[in-house]
Here is the input.
Amino acid sequence: MKPLAHLWRLVGWKRLAVTGLCLVAWRALDQIPVAELNPKFMNQLLLFTNTSTFLHAIGGALPFDRYSIVVMGIGPYINALIIMSIVAVMSQRMRTMRESPDGRLRLQRWTKALAVVLAFVQSYGWTVLMQVPTFPPQLDAMDWFSQLTVMLELTAGTMILVLLSDTLDEFGLGFGSGAVLIYALSPLADEVHELAQTFASTQLFAALYRPFAIWVGFSVALVVATVVVVLAVRRMPSVESRKAKSTKRIQLKVLMSGVLRPPMFAQAVMFSPVIVANYYMVSNPDLARWIYSAMNPYGPNPWIDLAYLAIYATLVIAFAYFVVAIDFGRTTTMPREMLAPIYRLALIGGAFLAVIVVLVPFLNHLATYAAGRVIPLSGFEAVLLVALILAIVGALEQSGKKGGGVPVLASRLP
Here is the structure.
């Protein structure tokens, strides 16, 4: 209890209050629709939103989340962070800049400028997709000025979330990872609403007992495995200790690539055909529907499904190796003899991520479907949130042992 009390003193009620207010503001932004949304579509959306019971209210509490000013989330900023982290490692000049406060500030500004560009480009794709003819259409046919207005709204929404993440870092419990925290909590909130909607739309609760128990089992196993692997290290003698015949050892994390970048790289590659299909929905709907069917592991053709899973898992492992090679191959001061075990650990960590991100959700889908009702599970979001919580708690505990103030997490992405 004493360590927990000390951690409470380190955190303080002010940081908890700021964190709570930032999270409330983040969820409230989900209910602000874009200005050009078709009123007929809005009325139809509200008409079919059932809030008659508590479960209905939770499940239907986000009628505008897919059409709000923050529909793109903080993803563009996360992508900018990943791009700049790779550029910073590849460039000797930027590595030197990171060592000074002024240089880090300039890198942060460039990162946010890149996030604005990425958000603006992504907002264009969203406006094109939302003008695909439906009944009633989500967005009416727009001229260039109306489209520009929506794009600016969506870009501004993303940057408001960036402002909230900066507030979390400075005054809340972000500790340098506020943006990743918002990014990890977004799908968790959506999953809670989907789970509530599943229970609300089922006439007989008894039919959900078995699939829900299976879903809980997979979730608990995923969390336990993530905790074990994220905290696992390999201790091995350094080259100097071998020469001196000493017992001094170094510690290498098993998951050296982190949990954010490899799955995001793989998702970007696997989702690119879907982006192409969105643009061909009107001109070639058959091709678009085939791409939609092929680019997921639950299509009508089991061989295509298996090929999708195999390619997805291979990409996760390959990008995990790539991240470690970039991080350590150019910046490490270790002798070359130490790089071989580092790369082996990269493959082991990549294989773990492939199992969690690709295989576990697929097995959960099959098991819950066989039990009577599919309850989806996102392995990537779950493992990211667990890893982030462990990083924050670990930083707080380390600060408590040293007797210092509230820590700031390392600049490396989780």
